Amino acid sequence: MNASILQSLIDGMLMGGVYALAALGISLIFGVMKITNFAHGALITVGMYITYECCTLLGVTPYVALPITMVLMFLIGYIIQKICLNPIMGAGGHNQLLLTQGIAIVLENLILVLFTANYKSVTVPGFETAIRLGSITINKPKLVAFLFVAVISVGIYLVLNKTDLGKAIRATSTQPDGATLMGIVVSKINCIAFGIGVMCAGIAGALLIPTQNISPTSGNAYSLKCFVIAVFGGLGNIWGAVIAGLIIGVVEAYSALFLGGSWSEMVIYVIFILTLIIKPTGLLGKKG
Description:
Blueprint: H1 3-33, H2 40-58, H3 62-85, H4 93-115, E1 131-133, E2 136-138, H5 140-162, H6 164-174, H7 176-181, H8 186-208, H9 220-233, H10 238-258, H11 261-278
Antiparallel strand pairs: 1-2
Helix pairs in contact: 1-5, 1-8, 1-9, 1-10, 2-3, 2-4, 2-8, 2-9, 3-8, 5-6, 6-8, 9-10, 10-11
């Protein structure tokens, strides 16, 4: 196999894994509460800055700071759902869209006030150089991020399918009225589900920090792509989001290789549109 083709495959899969984790948050939130969260990109940015502050103040790497980021992002998501979204859950979908867009604007401007518009970065000792396998190079931060994504995706799957909390989340997703009759507090489960979705966005942001400079709008670059991946894989389906993320990552890498970087975005959206024409529910989505 040509070295450049193999290199693009590796780069695409590593980046696609991070895309998948970020999209998993959107997919989970929509799957449980049918909320299209327009604040997702801003929440990725929040995860970046929380991790940056942990690294700066505590002198640790983003990977050591990750548990702190996970806890804080879960709490942020829980609070947003409880205070902002629960009161309008029975309202029309446009109310939720406008509210989440408003939350995104507030978060971006809050970050701008607290941290200014200057770019910030975190260097992880020992990760400045890539792993070399002959003519192939593997970016260390992206490789570590991919491994984290694999572990976290499996962990979320096990929580949703093997625990009482997961059963409650799935019951709330499919039959909220029936869940209420069984004694499940739907509003609380919604808060937990939204918290987990926001936590996924925060983890993705934390794992992206060693690969790029960050600014108050950094998460916007991933926001629309995450929506595409979530819908492409099938909203509410964990493995659909993972598979779609990997596909989009590889397609993006190969499009940049063969067509040039300016074409990669267009190719992604063409494939997305064609897929939804053929299968509107996405790769692993179900009707209904």
